[in-house]
Amino acid sequence: MNAQPTPKPRVAVHKFSSCDGCQLAFLNLGEDLLALAERVDLVHFAEAGPLDPDTEVDVAFVEGSVSTPEDLERIRRIREHSRMLIAIGACATSGGIQGLRNGADAAQWLAQIYEHPEAIASLERSTPIASHVKVDFELWGCPVSGPQMLAVVNALLLGVAPRDNADKVCTE
Ligand code: SF4
């Protein structure tokens, strides 16, 4: 009797408020990314289009900060359906450039920029992912280092904890 092949780990890369630079760092891995795609099931890449946040995955990479009510609802659903959640880059780990507005009156800025500010759904503050859900690991940088992301995935595939595990706990 033939043994069933072991299912590949399912990996997703999600985008929140960000410039896409961290995803591009991952894409720029070139041949290394193709080799990785042989070993994991890349079920979602934000650059390729939207994914149902209720899709079950083993590892979710998350780029970007939480800046809108939709972001907040989506990150909670992603967390619920991801075995490991890894925040990548300065936006996801500290709020990023969007976080500069945290020291200002966001409502006043919206009124100055948009003709219909009431149409803009925005949270008062732009916050890191760990402010809302448990984050298993953080990779810092702007952008994050592609080889570093690869090293984390390889460590997880080998069943070992990546180095410098931040072991973040939700602070909300
Ligand atoms: Fe872009 Fe930097 Fe944010 Fe990555 S951390 S999404 S490169 S602004």
TrEMBL record:
Q: Taxonomically, which superkingdom? A: Bacteria
What cofactors are annotated for this protein? [3Fe-4S] cluster
Q: Which UniProt keywords apply?
A: 3Fe-4S, Iron, Iron-sulfur, Metal-binding, Oxidoreductase
Iron-sulfur is among the record's keywords: yes
Pinpoint the NADH:ubiquinone oxidoreductase-like 20kDa subunit domain residues: 19-155
Indicate whether ATP-binding appears among the record's keywords.
no
Name of the protein this chain belongs to = Sulfhydrogenase subunit delta
UniProt source species? Thiobacillus sedimenti
Q: What lineage, starting at the top, does this entry show?
A: Bacteria, Pseudomonadati, Pseudomonadota, Betaproteobacteria, Nitrosomonadales
